[in-house]
Amino acid sequence: MEWLTNYNEHKYHERSELSSHGMMEFIKSPYKHFRKHVKKDSPGFEKSDAMNLGSLVHHLVLEPTRKVYFMPDLDGRTKEGKAAKEALTNSTPPQETIYSFKEEAKAQAILAALRAHEEANKWLFESKFTTEHTGITEFMGIPTRIRCDMINDKYIVDLKTTSNASPKDFGRYCENNGYIIQA
Questions:
Q1: Three-state secondary structure call for residue 147
Q2: pTM score of the predicted model
Q3: Of 57, 66, 137, 172, which residue is most buried, by most CB within 10 angstroms?
Q4: Among 166, 73, 81, 157, which residue's Cα sits nearest to residue 122?
């Protein structure tokens, strides 16, 4: 395994090695995976609201110094609202997500709950982990890449958000989203 330290997230996603997400796409439809990643003639995917919230929580927990962009609550039907939204969109780097203030409020509530939870606080904020660590290797002859949210000499942590954290429902959520492939 070759570990790349301080490796940019956007560069990671541009790499050609197979990721766990690419593997999950391939399992669902080899043809769609081929069109998207080899031929590159099909569109990428749109992030859902849940994915946006998860990304925002991820940034706030693991990359607290990274700039985050928020869209003010403006009326996009007015001339002023349209101009303000266009200005923010044009000034934001293209690879960055612009979050809503509603998403920020939810993410801040999740962050507060994590800090208040003794075990989560210990793991996420007080432990000595390297965050956002990228690894490149071959798996069964296939060039692959991984991006660990947190890693130390004993553990790899992958931060996830969910609408229901009960053991039964979260287990089903992990199975449905192919997290065993990431593991």
A1: strand
A2: 0.80
A3: 57
A4: 157
